[in-house]
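chain below, 150 aa
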Amino acid sequence: MSSEQNSAPDTAEAPAGAGPRPRRLTCAAALTALEGAALVIGGVWILVLALTGAPDDRQQAVTGGITLLVLALLPLLAARGLLQRRGWSRGPAVITQLMALPVAYNLLQADSMAIPGGIALAVVAVAALVLLVSPATTRALGIRGPGRAE
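prediction:
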C-alpha cells in the first residue's frame, strides 16, 4: 500500500461523544475495574494456595483459580472500553454487575465473615448498574434508544 492512497478514517478509534468524559462514566468504569481486579486477586490467591498448600483436590483448586482469572477479563475489558467511550463496553459491564448480584446474595446467606463481602459486592454492583444506565453514560457512549437511529 503506498502512502499516496487515502485511507478511510477509523471510526472505531473516535470517542462516541464530544467533550470531557462524564464523571458517572468514569465511576462506572472504576467500579467495573475494581470487580475485575478482585477476581484477579481471588484467582491468584486460590492458585497460590493450591500450589503451596494442601488442598483437598489440587486439580480442582487450580481450575478454580484459572477460571477466576479468565472471568476477570470481562470486567477489565469492559472497564477499558468504558474509559475509551466505546458503546460496546456497556453490555459486558452490565452483564458483570448482573452476575455479581447472585454472588452477593449467596455471600449474604453465609454464616461467616463473607457477609461484609456480600454487602460490599451488592453495593458496588447496584451502584455500577445505576451509573451504567444513566442518561449521561448512555449519551457519552453514543448509544441511541430504539427508533432513534440516524
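The chain has a mean pLDDT of 86. Residues 38 and 72 are 8 Å apart (CA to CA).
thats it, cya
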